[in-house]
Automatic annotation (TrEMBL):
GO BP term (any one): phosphate ion transmembrane transport
The keyword Metal-binding is annotated on this UniProt entry: no
One Pfam family named in its UniProt record: MFS_1
Protein known as: Uncharacterized protein
Topology class, membrane: Multi-pass membrane protein
Protein family per UniProt: Belongs to the major facilitator superfamily. Organophosphate:Pi antiporter (OPA) (TC 2.A.1.4) family.
Gene Ontology, cellular component aspect: endoplasmic reticulum membrane
Keywords, comma-separated and alphabetical: Membrane, Sugar transport, Transmembrane, Transmembrane helix, Transport
GO molecular function, one term: glucose 6-phosphate:phosphate antiporter activity
Subcellular localization: Membrane
Protein's organism: Cirrhinus molitorella
Catalytic activity: D-glucose 6-phosphate(in) + phosphate(out) = D-glucose 6-phosphate(out) + phosphate(in)
């Protein structure tokens, strides 16, 4: 008999649960990649909405020996209404409308998501997000020049996109425990940068010829992924147990309900009796999305639903979890920096390096590549050290001087610019990635919750919702400050970076004290 190939032996070593875990990891990765893919086009298209193609003529001045160019904005080939002198403020208002709606909706999204089936909630969000993303692109096809139209589309899209993050983090948190969570979440969170890169490439391909397709194509992609989500997403490992129990139930067995007291709580039991016709198995077994089915072969009993099942956590209850407030406020400033780069980096490169929109978009993807590496490194280091807050603080401390160096990009050559984009992307996105994934999952499964896993969606929404307030403010401030010069924007980013660092100092000191005698052991924040 021929020997079994090593690759087959490796694949055979995985059990069914491991296969489903890997499948859920890959599927949720692709789902949220499509979310970021659909957000990126606006930053690429900005330089097309206001193009550097004004006609220039020579106008005489007081000195006959000198002449200066005179711009004729009425002859500009930009897209109305972004052809005005205040175009940066108008573009900033579009960013702000999306991100402000996203921030407000995020606080509600987690609470709603805990009370609805995640698969359906996420599917509806992705389909409607695809619709509104395509609507923005339709503005080009139907020659729409109303600022109100674009603002409305951005607000609507911001609201429906809030369905994404709490849902996928809850899913991945259900499937993966705390062991090596930083590494797993760091790898998984690279979907943010992968989506930004793909969004930049797709939008850049169409931006010069038909910028409407820069939105329509990503809109179709996220809608298609919504259908995939509906067909294949498995929310929790318990869902597999329920499905296997349902499939293995003999068709000639009758179900009898009985109540029994276990540990002071009443549980509903279904007993099988051979020889009778099965009745209403689906309705009785699946009494709700959160129902738990446990098959006991010896006693032939299935626990369907317990009256003592933990209820969804309240907003104030989530805030009382130790560390939630500090990390939420830190993320506010960290996400301010990250999203300012997300929405304004291509335009800055266009102005500073004098490149066209496509080349600037391609070059900006290096920032996202650095973000992938930074997120993974942050996860690995925090796992090894057991210090999430300290890892974030060190990266924030290093990011500030890097931001100052990045502000001098126009004075560099291509080589140093590429290196600066990679380093800056890693240091800016590392803390952001760690807080929104591993830290959120840690806090959402904190021991003070006593096993109530339903808190994860609300905790994630609070942390990311607070961060989204900063994400809304950053691009808006960048639009206002850039009119005075891009150096003002970078001073704002460095200030935000230092504030994020200051907000973590209490947790950093707690980690250092806790690990003085127990290095490498994860810190469990205590209630206060």
């Amino acid at each position: 008999m021929a020997p079994v190939p090593p690759g087959i032996r490796f694949l055979a070593s995985f059990n069914r649960d491991q296969w489903y875990r890997a499948f859920t990891f890959a599927l949720t990765f692709l789902l949220y990649t499509s979310f970021h893919l659909s957000r990126k086009p606006i930053s690429i298209v900005k330089s097309e909405l206001h193009k550097n193609c004004s006609h220039v003529t020579e106008a005489p001045t007081e000195s006959s020996s000198s002449r200066q160019p005179a711009l004729h904005p009425e002859l500009d080939c930009s897209w109305k209404p972004f052809d005005r002198n205040n175009y940066k403020q108008l573009l900033g208002a579009m960013d702000y409308s999306f991100l402000c709606a996203y921030a407000i909706g995020m606080y509600l999204s987690g609470i709603i998501g805990e009370r609805l089936p995640i698969r359906l909630y996420l599917t509806v969000g992705m389909l409607t997000s695809g619709l509104f993303t395509c609507l923005f692109g339709m503005g080009y096809i139907y020659d729409i020049h109303s600022l109100g139209f674009y603002i409305f589309v951005q607000v609507a899209n911001g609201l429906v996109q809030t369905t994404g993050w709490p849902s996928v983090v809850t899913c991945i948190g259900n499937w993966f425990g705390k062991g090596r969570r930083g590494l797993i979440m760091g790898l998984w969170n690279s979907h943010t940068s992968v989506g930004n890169i793909l969004g930049s490439l797709i939008a850049g391909y169409y931006v010069s010829s038909n910028w409407g397709l820069s939105f329509i194509v990503p809109g179709v992609i996220i809608a298609a992924m919504g259908v995939v989500c509906f067909l294949f997403l498995i929310e929790h490992p318990h869902d597999l147990k329920i499905a296997s129990t349902q499939n293995s139930a003999p068709s000639n067995q009758k179900l009898h309900k009985s109540w029994n007291g276990v540990n002071g709580h009443k549980d509903l039991y279904l007993q099988y009796k051979p020889g009778a016709k099965a009745q209403s198995w689906d309705t009785e077994l699946l009494l709700g999305q959160e129902s738990i089915g446990v098959c006991v072969p010896v006693q032939q009993v299935v626990v369907v639903k317990s009256e003592a099942e933990p209820s969804a956590i309240s907003f104030m209850g989530a805030l009382r979890i130790p560390g939630v407030v500090e990390f939420s406020l830190c993320l506010l400033f960290a996400k301010l920096v990250s999203y300012t780069f997300l929405f304004w980096l291509p335009l800055y490169i266009t102005k500073a390096a004098h490149l066209d929109a496509k080349k600037a978009g391609d070059l900006s993807t290096l920032f996202d590549v650095g973000g992938i590496v930074g997120g993974i490194l942050a996860g690995v280091i925090s796992d090894k050290m057991g210090k999430r807050a300290t890892t974030c603080a060190v990266m924030l401390l290093l990011a500030a001087p890097t931001l100052y160096g990045f502000s001098m990009m126009s004075q560099f050559g291509l080589g140093p610019t590429i290196g600066m984009l990679l380093v800056c992307g890693g240091l800016v996105n590392g803390p952001y990635a760690l807080i929104t994934t591993a830290v959120s999952a840690d806090l959402g499964t904190h021991k003070s919750l006593k096993g109530n896993a339903r808190a994860l969606s609300t905790v994630t929404a609070i942390i990311d919702g607070t961060g989204s307030v900063g994400a809304a403010a950053g691009p808006l401030l960048a639009g206002l400050l850039s009119a005075r010069g891009w150096d003002q924007v970078f001073y704002m980013l460095m200030t935000a970076d230092f504030l994020a660092l200051l907000l973590l100092l209490r947790l950093v000191m707690k980690e250092l004290r806790s690990h003085r005698n127990r290095p490498g052991v994860a810190v469990e924040l205590k209630e206060h």
